[in-house]
Design goal:
Strand order of the largest sheet: 13-22-21-15-18-17
Number of helices: 3
CATH topology of the largest domain: Jelly Rolls
Distance between the termini: 148 Å
Helix content: 10-25%
Shape: rod-shaped
Largest sheet: 6 strands, mixed
CATH superfamily of the largest domain: Galactose-binding domain-like
CATH class of the largest domain: Mainly Beta
Number of domains: 2
Strand content: 35-45%
Length: 356
């Protein structure tokens, strides 16, 4: 293997090693369908949406186990790949072909995606006459993908295709035109490397009051921020209410909130990088007896978070103060009053005796 092939193989290996999701498609191994074109000449016009649809729904490409003598016997990037064609015997004769390599991205929080294509083709990939490039992603041509040959491996990429793909079904199309007549075929190793988005979430939680009375209404406020570098997708906030704290309601602009078994859950589609989501307000009632409550909450998303996001709020629940009843006034007598009272009693008693 020469130095250029060694470098290409090393590039493919390094791109795959760093990815969170790596999808490898080999001609002759992965399911590949084809739109067959004219023989001895490229397609006459630039590809349109109907051509890509026809390629994706077309017949399976033929696997040629006996490649033409001038073709490379194996692809250095991956020895499992095999020559394929758009006719019954690609190694003898065959038309131009638009080959569809379908793949599925399962990652829901896509940060970046790169595509690397290692191939050999008879006669080449792409053609300037239409013009048509040699590599397409979901129908979008990738510039600079015209060329190559059948006697050696050519590598395109890694190329950033982040904006061209999405979670779910996608397709890479390779166009191998037949220009000179005779055999027409393709051998390829397609690698799609998906990096998960990175989003550093923080959660700040506060209570409406540090101290409340038993059975009193109060609330918690929760603010989730994203320090980036990417958007956070499918964000979830989970708040486990302390024992005895009664749930009343939960809401926030753009949030969908619910409650079950003492756990409040709020979700939203995303939080942009370097921004904060609208505040979540959870309305509750205090326990019926004095206690010190600690309420823990956490925030997460489908994006990678280096340290997670958690916070808590403490509320002291106390009995209400006793009712302050006005004391009854009890009259008191000093020593002179007592002497006067005794004299008065004696006077009244004397008057009664005289009358008797």
């Amino acid at each position: 293997m020469n130095r250029s092939l060694l470098a290409a193989a090393a590039l493919l290996a390094s791109a795959s090693a760093l990815a969170d999701e790596t999808i490898t498609l080999n001609s002759g191994v992965a399911p590949v369908t084809v739109l067959a074109g004219p023989a001895d000449t490229p397609f006459a016009a630039s590809f349109v949406a109907a051509d890509f649809t026809a390629a994706s729904s077309g017949p399976a490409a033929t696997v040629d186990l006996t490649p033409a003598g001038a073709w490379i016997a194996a692809l250095p990037a991956d020895a499992a790949a095999e020559w394929i064609g758009a006719s019954a015997d690609p190694g003898t004769a065959g038309p131009s072909g638009l080959y569809a390599f379908p793949f599925t991205i399962t990652e829901t929080a896509i940060g970046s995606v790169t595509l690397t294509v290692a191939f050999a083709a008879d006669d080449a990939l792409g053609h300037a006459a239409a013009p048509n490039q040699g590599v397409f992603v979901n129908g979008t041509p990738l510039a600079g993908t015209t060329g190559g040959g059948f006697a050696a491996q050519t590598t395109y990429g890694p190329t950033d295709i982040t904006g061209l793909v999405s979670t779910g079904a996608n397709t890479v199309y390779l166009y191998a035109p037949d220009v000179a007549g005779g055999p027409s075929g393709l051998i390829a190793n397609v690698v799609v490397a998906v990096e998960t988005a990175d989003a550093d979430l923080t959660l700040v939680k506060t209570a409406s009051a540090p101290t409340v009375q038993t059975n009193a209404a109060f609330s918690y406020s929760l603010v989730v921020s994203n320090a980036g570098p990417d958007a956070a997708t499918n964000v979830t906030v989970t708040d486990t209410l302390p024992g005895g704290v009664g749930y009343v309601s939960a809401s926030g602009s753009g949030w969908s909130c619910g409650h079950a078994a003492g756990i409040v859950t709020c979700t939203r589609a995303s939080i942009a990088s370097m921004s904060a989501a609208p505040t979540i307000t959870i309305n509750v009632t205090a326990p019926g007896s004095p206690t010190n409550t600690i309420n823990n909450a956490s925030a997460s998303s489908d994006s990678d978070d280096p340290d997670g996001a958690m916070d808590s709020a403490t509320v002291n629940v106390v009995d209400p103060p006793p009712v302050d009843e006005e004391p009854q006034h009890v009259p008191t007598l000093n020593v002179f009053g007592i002497a006067g009272l005794i004299a008065l009693i004696g006077l009244v008693g004397g008057l009664r005796r005289r009358r008797g």
